[in-house]
Write a structure and sequence with these properties.
Strand content: 25-35%
Number of strands: 10
Structural class: alpha+beta
Number of domains: 2
Distance between the termini: 39 Å
Largest sheet: 5 strands, antiparallel
Number of helices: 8
Oligomer: single chain
Order of helices and strands: EEEHHHEEHHEEEHEHEH
C-alpha cells in the first residue's frame, strides 16, 4: 500500500543576491511509516568549480551534522511514544536542525508524493536531484569516501548512523579526529580505508601511513578499537600487494578488526546490537 511522504532538498546557495544554488541533499518524511531520513553528498568539487573560496572541509562537516541530526530525529520518531500530534511534513524537522536564515545552506519548500518503500524513494530522489548533476568522471580507483558509501547504506537502514559521532584521539605527540565513533568502556572507531588503487606501491604506502598513525595514537592513555572498513582492489593483479598491506596493518598496536565489503550488512547488524545493549545496560 502506498503511503504519503514529503521531502525537501538541501541547497547550497553561495550568493543570496544572485540566488544561484546547487542541490546537496534530500530529507524525506513518511508520517504513517514514522520514517524520517536524509542523504547528503560529501562531495564539494562541483561547488568549488562554480564558486570561488569554498571551504570544503567546513561544507563536509556541516552536511554530516545535518544528516546525523535528521537521523537522530528519525530514531526519536520511532522509539518515543508520540503523545503529541506527529508533524505533518519534512520541514517541521528541518527547521529544528537548520534554522531559516541567510546562511548558504537552506532547505527548499516541500514537495509531496506516494511511496511503498520510503528508503528506496529517498535514494531515488537523491540520485535524481543531487547525484545526477555531479560530473561523472571515469574512475580508475576508489576513494575512502567511495568505500564509505558501501558501508553507510546498511548503517542507515539499521538506524545506526546517528549513533556514530566524530571523536579526536589525543596522544602524547599526535592527535587525529575520526568521524564515525561510539563509546562504551572504550571508543569504537569505524574507519573506511580504500586499497582500490592504481599501483601496488600506493597500497603498501597507505598501509604504512596508517600503521604509523595508529602507532602514534596508542602512545597515550586513551584506549580504542579500530574497525577498518576495507575497500579491496578490483584489479586481481594487486591481490598480493593487498595481502601485504593487511599484514602491515595487523601490526597496529591497538585492538583492531578488518571488515570486508560483503560483510557490510552483518557489520551494521552487529553494531546495532552492541550499541543497543550498551544503552540498555546504562
Amino acid at each position: 500500500m502506498k503511503i504519503p511522504y514529503s521531502f525537501s532538498i538541501l541547497r547550497y546557495t553561495h550568493d543570496i543576491v544572485s540566488g544561484e544554488f546547487i542541490n546537496v541533499g534530500i530529507v524525506l518524511f513518511a508520517p504513517k511509516a514514522r520514517f524520517l531520513s536524509a542523504m547528503c553528498t560529501p562531495r564539494f568539487g562541483r561547488i568549488s568549480k562554480m564558486f570561488a573560496n569554498v571551504d570544503g572541509e567546513h561544507f563536509k562537516q556541516v552536511t554530516r551534522y545535518i544528516e546525523a541530526r535528521i537521523e537522530e530525529e528519525g530514531e526519536r520518531l520511532i522509539s518515543e511514544l508520540m503523545l503529541d500530534k506527529i508533524p505533518a511534513g519534512a520541514l517541521d524537522f528541518t527547521k529544528r536542525v537548520l534554522p531559516v536564515d541567510d546562511s548558504s545552506l537552506q532547505f527548499s519548500p516541500e514537495s509531496f508524493g506516494l511511496t511503498e518503500k520510503p528508503q528506496e524513494t529517498l535514494e531515488q530522489l537523491f540520485n535524481r536531484y543531487v547525484e545526477k548533476y555531479y560530473e561523472k568522471m571515469e574512475r580508475t580507483s576508489r576513494s575512502d569516501d567511495d568505500v564509505w558509501k558501501i558501508y553507510k547504506k546498511p548503517l542507515e537502514e539499521k538506524r545506526v548512523l546517528a549513533s556514530l559521532i566524530p571523536h579526536q584521539i589525543i596522544a602524547n605527540d599526535y592527535e587525529h579526529e575520526f568521524e564515525y565513533c561510539w563509546k562504551n568502556e572504550k571508543w569504537h572507531i569505524s574507519e573506511p580505508i580504500s586499497f582500490d588503487m592504481l599501483d601496488s606501491s600506493y597500497i603498501q604506502d597507505k598501509a604504512n601511513v596508517w600503521l604509523g598513525r595508529i602507532t602514534s595514537l596508542t602512545n597515550g592513555s586513551e584506549k580504542f578499537k579500530l574497525n577498518v572498513l576495507i575497500g579491496s582492489p578490483r584489479d586481481e593483479k594487486l591481490a598480493s600487494s593487498f595481502v601485504k598491506a593487511k599484514n602491515i596493518l595487523h601490526r597496529m598496536p591497538c585492538d583492531h578488526d578488518f571488515i570486508q565489503e560483503d560483510q557490510a550488512s552483518q557489520y551494521a547488524e552487529n553494531l546495532k546490537k552492541d550499541i543497543e545493549a550498551h544503552k540498555n545496560a546504562a
